[in-house]
Amino acid sequence: MNKITYLIILLVIIFAACKEDEPITPDTGIPTVQADATYSVLIEEDISYADGLGHDATSTSPFPIPQYLDVYLPDNDSDNRPVFMFIHGGGFTGGIKHKPEIVDMGNYYAARGWVFVSIDYRTTQELGVIQGMTQEELITYYQGMAPQEWIANALEGAQSQDQVKQATAMYLAQRDAKAALRWITANAETYNINTDYITVGGASAGAITTIALGISNLEDFRDEITSSDDPTLSTTNLDETYDVKSMIYFWGSNIKLDVFETVYDLEQYARYDSNDPELFMAHGTAQDPVTPYEGALELQSIYDSLGVYNMLSTILLPNGEPAGHGAWNGVVDDKGLFELTFDFLVERQNLDVE
Asked: What number of other Cβ atoms are within 10 A of residue 44's Cβ?
């Protein structure tokens, strides 16, 4: 028997053995998650994802302030994990990434195979003291933090200094949330993240920021300020891109996109299109002047007109009463928010479930 014939026979035997004992299946690229809590959860806290300019009570010029996030990881050896970035609420005046309900949500998802990332961002607490400032003084004070046209719009519509700061913080929060998502894509290999399966979610102000993040263009809330005015932009992974697959919205609205359209003189709903991420909304009907239920109905109408899949879950309290703002204990057919969103993501992202 010559060497070539021997090698061919050997390869046939090896292939047959592999076929019999270890079936060869193609890698579909679809992540596998668990139906139940399966993995221990590892938590990496207070990772700096970017700097952003801010003020304290005495500063006259803005200075760099680090922004932090927490990462919840499944203790497994998967190299193909979906990721869920969550944005806390707080009316753009405060809030924390480690709110107990968010910690519970992070553990819920990481125990089932996701990488869950909870972020902090700049709020009015980093906007100093502006009492008595003129428009020109305020624009100088916030140079590099928010665009002049955004500040001018805030001054025009606000009835108090606190409202001016809150409207300005809406821009800063968006800039930071986008930087956090770029950090995730820049570090995808470190955490074995599949960036084809990005979910972004939030509650209240976080839901408002989620909608603007998923629907706005990549350059929006990023390129309105130059690096010469804001040197901290160099810390925000500007070369990274992302594609959000799904959005999770708890009692929010699309008000930030409305403001963006007004500030930059765009047509209504200018940033919405048929390629927008699919959307899950949990919202109660109890009266809420901040984020009314009608805001969810408006988003549903926009999405329906574009033919983009969306789901509005009208949540109730466990006692059957209509849920209001901040109803983390809201339910639909005895399913809580974590289970409702899990079902949505598994079905709509076509994830493999074990």
From this structure: 12
